[in-house]
Amino acid sequence: MRNLVLFALLFAACAECAAQDISKIDRNFESRKIGNVELRFYDAKDAPFKVEGLPWRKEGGGYSRLPDGVTAENASRGVVGLCGHASGAAIRFATDSKSIAVRYVTNGNGIMGHMARSGSSGFDLYLRDENGRYSFVKNFHQRNVSEMGKVPYEELGANFSDSKMREFALFLPRYCGVKSVAIGVLQGAEIKPPAPHKVAKPIVFYGSSITQGGCASRPATVYTGKLCRELDAEEINLGFSGNAKGEDILAEKIGDIDMSIFVYDYDYNAPNARHLENTHERFFKIFRKKRPDTPVIMMTRCSMPSADRVAAIRRTYENAVKAGDKNVYFIDCSKIFEPYGGIAECTVDFCHPTDLGFHAMYEAVLPVARKILEDK
Amino acid sequence: MRNLVLFALLFAACAECAAQDISKIDRNFESRKIGNVELRFYDAKDAPFKVEGLPWRKEGGGYSRLPDGVTAENASRGVVGLCGHASGAAIRFATDSKSIAVRYVTNGNGIMGHMARSGSSGFDLYLRDENGRYSFVKNFHQRNVSEMGKVPYEELGANFSDSKMREFALFLPRYCGVKSVAIGVLQGAEIKPPAPHKVAKPIVFYGSSITQGGCASRPATVYTGKLCRELDAEEINLGFSGNAKGEDILAEKIGDIDMSIFVYDYDYNAPNARHLENTHERFFKIFRKKRPDTPVIMMTRCSMPSADRVAAIRRTYENAVKAGDKNVYFIDCSKIFEPYGGIAECTVDFCHPTDLGFHAMYEAVLPVARKILEDK
Question: What φ, ψ does residue B105 adopt, rounded to 5°?
Fold first, then answer.
């Protein structure tokens, strides 16, 4: 079926093409051996693979997190530069293949001193069972740093003893772009679209580097990812490292997404409390105009909090409640690291959470998100 | 005082030297500017600095974790190769300097895909107050990877507004050797030895890569480091990544250390349960002969546990109890990750803990260690 669609597309461009061996045209379709396993690779950007987390992506398109219309002028060069990072994006599919492999070319290498490449430029493969429960299969990270962004990296992800239909989610890197992703399966194996999530509509996150995922050990262990796996929801991550300033254009574009929950979390990148006072409620109101009933969780920063920042965010919440808004939730995160030893134990640099800090954030947001979904 | 000792040493070798400017002889003594701060650097391997965690180190010597007599023949090439990694080592000192800087040359770069360099080849500076409580000041990690091991890296660690005497601990990298470490203070600042720890004798750990510290975000967030900071004890880390096989020679050498607690934790590196059966009790008995009363905490692995491995370790413990040993403690770690989401959430690769996994390990060992110390 999938091959048919692709052949049809090629056929539209050139009638002769249909007779050609597609593996000669697109290397993704080659049969290749990894170890003793002969695999056939399929480009993950096309159906039946489902690319999630990129609401403005066009079928078959690249892995950008933002739509046209967000520019250096109305947002910032930072936001435009970071939208290529694949944070929150995932490839979902089902297959009966006994072996699964992944081949990818990143766009950048994600090298940072305080974040492991397994998180910044690595990929996480998970199994998803029929009840929407996820189990970790493997993290992929390219060994040869000098080849990153240039030479495709491929690795076997799993081998099963039987060929029953299984569903997978491949979570893409948090601090790195992705040029291409291909999934390798055994010759003749079937590939099908994944089942829908338990939570019908995505959870959208807007925030800073912490939201984007710095400095988690793996793409899936960021609080956003932990939450969406636990609830079984699509994650849309609009975390822009150092560049989430609450610009109007972001509020407008985010308001275009049909979502189950909006997690509104950019305290970290507001230069000061005054900036929050000037932008936080304004952003919310722009969003609210487009999404009058969407539940909104407003979070404060977890590390280096300040009372006036908390107050600015709380004001948005309290004014909304006063105005009769029944879909706003406020989480003061100032003290959530304390049961885990405080900021020094939960961050790598007083700012970016380690996996321990992200666990604390997840524990803070999960009950609020769960209640929202149960009350619906 | 410190300069006097060094001048005296130089004088012993060459009478003319004493008249020379030492900063011309040893670059560590240069005055150097970092930003606008003019600092004078002192080599941390000499008094009044206290180098901890390296019981066999000779005054002024290098940063090796093992004594002469442990060889590729009676241990392994792996153990001999890894003893140069500075895991668990710390530089302690007190100073009234308003500014503190660190300069170091690593031996290797600690680059791994699944561990951040802030942990593998980074340094953690902590303040220690008069009650033995530690607070995180800064993590240092060399930005230019190609310069690592070749070019000294220096960075300002802290600036204080007053010049009261403060005590510091600088924790060395977990997966990297250290050629030299120098501490920079303001011209004329006093440097003194640190106060003793609350726990008089060190806590010694023997184990695998997990014990050595893979894959913590920072040197101080490994469970061994968290435990020793919380209790205020010197850490002696004899974790040998992939190479802790329970060799007799290690038991003998470890038995030479006068310690408060021995944490015995090499399940991960035993190739199988049979290997544990053949070595675990034997190692303990060799150690026990030298240290008849030292409290010993025996731990099983936390990830990918197996019943027969747990049984082999438990047997050592139960036989000791039966024989009247009142100083043995057993922690089955098979399930300690469960409250934190299990092995998949607590490790980067089903094996090496993230900071979340290390927190779980710390929580498991802390009450046992605390009870041992209180009962004494």
Answer: -125, 120
Residues in chain B: 376
B113-159 pLDDT, tens per residue? Answer: 999 999 999 999 999 999 999 999 999 999 999 999 999 999 999 99
Q: What is the mean pLDDT of chain B?
A: 92
CB contact under 8 A, B341 and A226: yes
pLDDT single digits (tens) A177-200: 999 999 999 999 999 999 999 999
Domain limit, last residue, from A173, A192, A211: A192
Nearest-CA residue of chain B relative to A126? B344
**Are B184 and B209 found together in one domain?**
no
Q: Are residues A149 and A49 in the same domain?
A: yes
As a whole number of angstroms, the distance between CA B314 and CA B331 comes to 9
Centre a 10 Å sphere on the Cβ of residue B285 and count the other Cβ atoms it contains. Answer: 14
Domain assignment present for A225: yes
Residue with tokens 């969406």: A228
CATH of residue A346's domain is 3.40.50.1110
Preferred mutation among B112, B127, B217, B221 to probe A, highest tally of A CBs within 10 A: B217
Residue of A nearest to B139 (CA): A349
Please give the helix or strand (H or E) that residue A8 lies within, else none: helix A2-13
Residue B211 has pLDDT above 90, yes or no: yes
CATH of the domain at A147: 2.60.120.260
Residue A348 DSSP class = S
Q: Give the domain extent around B258.
A: 203-375
Does residue A141 sit at the B interface (CB-CB below 8 Å)? yes
Give the per-residue pLDDT at A26. Answer: 54
What residues of chain A score a pLDDT lower than 50? 1-23, 25
Contact across the interface for B345 and A113, Cβ inside 8 Å: no
Say which residue the tokens 């079928």 belong to. Answer: A59
Q: Using 50, 70 and 90 to split pLDDT, how confident is the model at B61?
A: confident
Do B160 and B185 belong to one domain?
yes
CA angle B108, B110, B116 (to 5 degrees): 155
| Mean predicted confidence (pLDDT) in B68-80 | 94
- Give the span between the Cα atoms of A86 and B217, in whole angstroms: 22
* Nearest alpha carbon to residue B358 among B311, B312, B303: B303
Interface A–B counts its CB contacts (< 8 A) at 101
The sign one gets for the Cα dihedral A173, A174, A175, A180 is positive
Residue of B nearest to A135 (CA): B344
B355 vs A111, A136, A356: nearest CB: A356
What b/e sequence results for A255-294 when a residue is b if at least 16 CB atoms lie within 10 Å of its CB, and e otherwise? Answer: bebebbbbbbbbbbbbeebebbbebbbebbebbbeebeeb
A113–chain B Cβ distance below 8 A for any pair: yes
Question: In chain A, what residues touch B354 (CB-CB under 8 Å)?
Answer: 217-218, 221, 354-356
Contact B345 A112 (CB under 8 A): no
Distance CA A286, CA B78 (A): 61
Q: DSSP secondary structure string, A228-240?
A: HHHHT--EEEEE-
| Count of domains for chain A | 2
3-state secondary structure of A262: strand
CB A280 within 8 A of CB A309: no
Which of A114, A141, A142 faces B141 most closely, judged by CB atoms?
A: A114
Q: B18 to chain A, minimum CA–CA distance in Å?
A: 42
Cβ contact (<8 Å) for B350 and A116?
A: no
